Amino acid sequence: MQDCENTKAQRTQRHKGIVVVGVGNDFRHDDAAGLIAARRLRDCGIPAQEHQGDLATLIERWKGADSLILIDAIAPGRVPGAMYRLNASTSPLDRQVCNTSTHAFGLADVIELSRTLGTLPPKVLVFGIKAKDLTVGVGLSPEVEANLPELVKEVTRARQQFGSIRALGVR
């Protein structure tokens, strides 16, 4: 099946207050990486949402959450498929790195708007995977596809860490 590093107990454990959202566009090749990662997480029994379209509406998905994990393709670069874990809890993301949106408003902008509005959860991680191909079409590039299972594992680990931190009462 999928690369799920979960025991049955981990799959059934509830992580209230942790929101996981895969962001992207199914019809722009590697831009679908966040969406596909969310689907694979759900296949592993981990609640993960998908978001396509206007990024400004993303804020509604995490209102009231204690922790947020976002998954997205990030701007093409030298090493397609390279993975990044960015902590957006206390400082802004680089707009150039996190700009794969076809809209004027990118993921970094949405996070900063939410921070300004006071709706950003205290703990925010963004998992990115370097895109190779953002042209119109379906299917991931071989480089992104090859690294997606590891990205899913990393998101799973981060979600478990968030759950452990919350269970200990540390905020």
Kindly describe this structure.
The C terminus is likely disordered. The longest helix is centred in the C-terminal third of the chain and has 26 residues. With 171 residues, the protein is α/β, with parallel strands linked by helices. It has one domain: HybD-like (Rossmann fold). Strands 2-1-3-5-4 form a 5-stranded mixed beta sheet. It starts with 7 loop residues before the first helix and ends with a helix. The protein is built from 4 helices and 5 strands; from the N terminus they run αβαβββαβα.
Describe the structure using short key phrases:
disordered C terminus; Rossmann fold; 171 residues; 5-stranded mixed sheet; single chain; globular
Report the count of strand segments: 5
CATH topology: Rossmann fold
Measured by DSSP, the beta-strand proportion falls in 15-25%
Please indicate the count of domains. 1
Summarize the structure in short.
The chain is α/β, with parallel strands linked by helices. The chain contains four helices and five strands, in the order αβαβββαβα.
Lay out the secondary structure.
Elements: H1 8-12, E1 18-23, H2 33-43, E2 49-51, E3 67-74, E4 83-87, H3 107-117, E5 123-130, H4 142-167
Parallel strand pairs: 1-2, 1-3, 3-5
Antiparallel strand pairs: 4-5
Helix pairs in contact: 2-4
